[in-house]
Amino acid sequence: GATIGMLGGGQLGRMLALAGRAMGYRFATLDPTPDSPCGQVADKQITAAYHDVGAARELAAIADVITYEFENVDVEVTSLLMKESYVPQGSSLLYTTQHRLREKRAIEAAGVKVAPYAEIKSAEELREAAERFGVPCVLKTATGGYDGKGQWVLRSQGEVQEAYDTLSKAGTELVLEQFIHFDKEISVIAVRSPRGEVKTFPPAENEHVNNILHLSIVPARAPEQVLKEAQRMAERIAEELDVIGLIAVEMFLTKEGELFVNELAPRPHNSGHYTMEACQTSQFEQHVRAICNLPLGGTELLTPVVMANVLGEHVKPLLDWIVKPESEQVAAGVTAKVHLYGKSEAKRGRKMGHVNILAPTTEAACRWIDASNIWESKK
Ligand code: ATP
Ligand code: MG
Ligand code: MG
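Output (structure tokens, whole complex):
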């Protein structure tokens, strides 16, 4: 079979490789950590830094197709890979999504709404923009942020100087966003193949704790026409940005039913893990189908589901709970599917796995979560 080369060896790569191997593909991953989550299930791991040109060449030599599982791939390495192998996702989507300003402009050009924003080049510009948007407003570094890092929520004009000084230390451009008083956060994963086929998965309703995804609830508890609109927006972005493979679209939904796109991720997304057992096709299989130019699979939801992330502090309570008879008696027809990523150090706050709780209703799945007490410590 063909070999798929992967930049990055984390859990997203691991789940991609597990799905792709079932389809007959071989996998090689490039990651700096020996025995990475993906390396454990791949045919081969090249252990080196992501920007190591020699290692990238080695990957290109054995891979028929190359993909990535994180978006901060070195642009130089990507162009080299494009010359020496086949990178169906290309590099321009990476270039766009690595930078919040470029990303927002691209989303707007696709005819989709984002929260009002301004490029910030000085404390003076920040003062002026914060006055225009009002407080609270959110200052973000244009590149490199994740899990809420590289952000400052300005609660008063008095914080302008300190916020500017702190975030500008990162040396990247800054962007100020109006604060959206959202009712819910939702996300839609879209997929597009080289032959131009586009599909979306059902929207997930996402709850965060300490800026880290805690739950994805599907179906999302929002009016049908709002969810349809969210899917149309994601489809439009996939088409207008010439996406190949997956693109995750994070959105804010207001009480009035208005949708704003927050940010994009051109790869499998944590909020799409529910698809593994709850949809006709998982996001991982779908990505493999897309980059290999196979027909896309159906995205229909087969059952209500709640995905709960398992962080370092949740591993032991989870393993203790699932073997208890009570865990099966909480609600009839509930099945908890446990996924662990093969990481050895269960550090606090580190993503170690997730559980997909399949149930007759999302309420029943939430009852299982509450009864388990696994996530008590974090709330
Ligand atoms: P991720 O881990 O999802 O990549 P990130 O560090 O890139 O996170 P964002 O997704 O931009 O950061 O923001 C993190 C969270 O902060 C959002 O999920 C949302 O809850 C809140 N947030 C960000 N921007 C805004 C905004 N303009 N208005 C209201 N809340 C916001
Ligand atoms: Mg982000
Ligand atoms: Mg985000």
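The two ends are 46 Å apart (CA to CA).
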